[in-house]
């Protein structure tokens, strides 16, 4: 795509005009819109699907912002400086250090704004940081919105994207209680609905950015009901519409993924639209080979569900070899799967376990796989021996036998000398374990099972490079006037790692907050 694809509005007329136009409806977009409207700026948020929330609505709702007041209220001793020590130690200088500081230093202000200006109740909940590094919190530093009862949001609940089991696997919808990411979206929608200068539009997809003759972003072209309309943005356009995880073309080209169907995002989100729009205005792009990776259970409908917290069993590749600590944080385990794929081991992985839980699936997967449906689809195999199971899943019997026996040897002595399973607080967290021994249950019994896993993701993390004020940087190194980005539409401030639960939402909210301040003509200092 070239700059010819960008609409240049010569006569400066629009079908409607606002101070701020926000593209997308995840947590970063919704929060940015709420801050803009609260500042007195007329604001229009456009969402291309029929529901608000994007991939944020699927999330557990964790927000990672070190040193904030909700952590203090929850009894956790933390500080921005300790969070910075940790963040720097795992991210390094892969991303601009000033942007890192802008994100981290703004975090406590964001939380106070959520609490004091928008009236959103929050709580601290333990969930360990993902790396053993200086400044780590073993109990984590994530905050969450308190759940929303259905009667609080009323008919608006029908406009919030439902959970994954409902949205992708046909489970019945229940809006009696909205939790996690859906609670964030619900509370932000309610806050925006209460503001006369905020307008929210569903089924309104952005096809192009509108620029003036000087290259300033002054609006967007939206497609509503098959009609193209232009929306002007006097102060700026904030693009927070997610990544490109559902674009088969870009996933193949940029990440060498065999399909885009294994992403956890909704099939109607995460297209190539945002990347193409940024390319059209000469934006600098980065981290396009990166995603928020995770192991995922493959389902008969071709979708894959985020899977973590493996309570027993082992994961093997297409050769029957165990290759990693199954209790690694999910992004790190996903990267282990990706490394095997890139090394030529194929993209078939198997979770091998026994009947310790009565034949149930000993891991966290929402929805849990149905044994009968998965067996019929060839995604779940059951056998009476390791060798029989290996034949069923098409791996070398001797290799699988070796992997099981070696793991059982580790279980007997209580130490995984290959991959150190159970030695890290994160690995023990989901099992409620206090020792590595409790995380090393031997595999045996009369029946063994193997369930197909694939490399999934929680979205891509590459996009427009932004500066400390959330302004999109051009390939010439200068900010593109009037254009801002946040969330997965921007290149993640965390670079090639996932520091802790809530990094995507926390960084997205922090940079959206800074972007709106810049649009309002009151840019925030990096050091707050």
How would you characterize the overall build of this protein?
The protein has 528 residues and is an alpha+beta fold. It is 30% helix and 22% strand. It is built from 15 helices and 23 strands. It has helices at 27-38, 69-73, 80-91, 97-117, 150-153, 164-169, 180-193, 248-255, 273-280, 330-342, 371-376, 386-393, 397-413, 425-429, 503-519, and strands at 7-8, 16-23, 43-46, 63-64, 122-124, 142-145, 148-149, 177-178, 198-201, 205-211, 217-224, 227-239, 285-286, 291-298, 304-308, 314-316, 349-354, 364-365, 380-383, 448-460, 463-464, 471-473, 479-485. Strands 1, 2, 3, 9, 10, 11, 12, 22 and 23 form a nine-stranded mixed beta sheet that branches. Strands 14, 15, 16, 17, 18, 19 and 20 form a seven-stranded antiparallel beta sheet that branches. Strand 11 and strand 12 (227-239) form a beta hairpin. The protein is globular, with a radius of gyration of 23 Å. The two termini are 39 Å apart.
| Cα shape | globular
Major sheet attributes:
9 strands, mixed
Query: What is the count of DSSP helices, taking H or I runs of 4+ residues?
Result: 15
The overall average pLDDT, rounded, is 96
How large, in whole angstroms, is the Cα Rg?
23 Å
Briefly note the structural class of the backbone: alpha+beta
Instruction: Compute the number of strand runs.
Output: 23
What fraction of the residues are assigned to beta strands by DSSP? 15-25%
């Amino acid at each position: 795509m070239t700059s010819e694809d960008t609409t240049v509005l010569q006569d400066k007329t629009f079908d409607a005009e606002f101070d701020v136009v926000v593209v997308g409806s995840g947590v970063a977009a919704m929060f940015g819109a709420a801050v803009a409207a609260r500042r007195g700026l007329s604001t229009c948020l456009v969402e291309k699907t029929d529901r608000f929330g994007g991939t944020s609505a699927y999330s557990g709702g964790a927000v990672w912002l070190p040193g904030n007041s909700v952590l203090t209220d929850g009894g956790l001793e933390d500080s921005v400086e300790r969070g910075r020590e940790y963040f720097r130690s795992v991210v390094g200088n892969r991303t601009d250090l000033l942007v890192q500081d802008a994100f981290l230093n703004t975090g406590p202000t964001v939380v106070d704004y959520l609490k004091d200006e928008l009236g959103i109740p929050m709580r601290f909940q333990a969930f360990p940081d993902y790396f053993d590094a200086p400044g780590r919190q073993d109990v984590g530093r994530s905050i969450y919105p308190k759940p929303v009862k259905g009667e609080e949001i009323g008919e608006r609940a029908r406009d919030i994207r439902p959970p994954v089991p409902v949205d992708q696997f046909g489970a019945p919808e229940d809006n009696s209680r909205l939790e996690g990411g859906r609670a964030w979206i619900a509370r932000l929608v309610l806050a925006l609905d209460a503001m006369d200068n905020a307008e929210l539009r569903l089924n309104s997809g952005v096809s192009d950015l509108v620029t003036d003759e000087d290259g300033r972003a002054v609006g967007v072209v939206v497609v509503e009901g098959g009609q193209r309309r232009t929306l002007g943005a006097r102060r700026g356009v904030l693009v927070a519409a997610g990544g490109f995880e559902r674009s088969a073309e870009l996933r193949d080209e940029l990440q060498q993924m065999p399909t885009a169907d294994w992403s956890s995002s909704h099939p109607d989100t995460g297209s190539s639209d945002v990347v193409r729009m940024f390319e059209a205005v000469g934006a600098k792009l980065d981290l396009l080979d990166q995603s928020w990776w995770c192991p995922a259970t493959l389902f008969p409908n071709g979708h894959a569900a985020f899977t973590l917290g493996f309570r027993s069993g082992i994961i093997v590749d297409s050769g029957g070899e165990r290759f990693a600590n199954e209790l690694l944080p999910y992004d790190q385990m996903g990267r282990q799967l990706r490394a095997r794929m890139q090394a030529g081991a194929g993209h078939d992985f198997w979770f091998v376990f026994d009947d310790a839980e009565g034949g149930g699936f000993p891991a966290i997967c929402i929805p849990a796989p149905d044994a009968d449906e998965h067996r019929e689809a060839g995604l779940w195999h059951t056998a009476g021996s390791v060798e029989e199971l290996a034949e069923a899943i098409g791996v070398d019997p001797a290799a699988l036998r070796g992997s099981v026996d070696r793991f059982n040897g580790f279980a007997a002595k209580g130490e995984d000398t290959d991959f150190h399973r159970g030695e890290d607080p994160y690995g023990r967290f989901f099992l409620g374990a206090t020792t590595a021994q409790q995380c090393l249950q031997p595999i045996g019994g009369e029946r063994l099972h193997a369930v197909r896993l694939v490399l999934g993701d929680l979205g891509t993390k590459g996009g427009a490079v932004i500066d400390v004020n959330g302004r999109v940087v051009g390939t010439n190194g200068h900010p593109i006037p009037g254009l801002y980005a946040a969330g997965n539409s921007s290149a993640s401030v965390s670079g090639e790692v996932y520091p802790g639960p809530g990094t995507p939402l926390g960084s997205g909210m922090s940079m959206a907050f800074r972007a709106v301040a810049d649009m309002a003509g009151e840019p925030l200092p990096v050091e707050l």
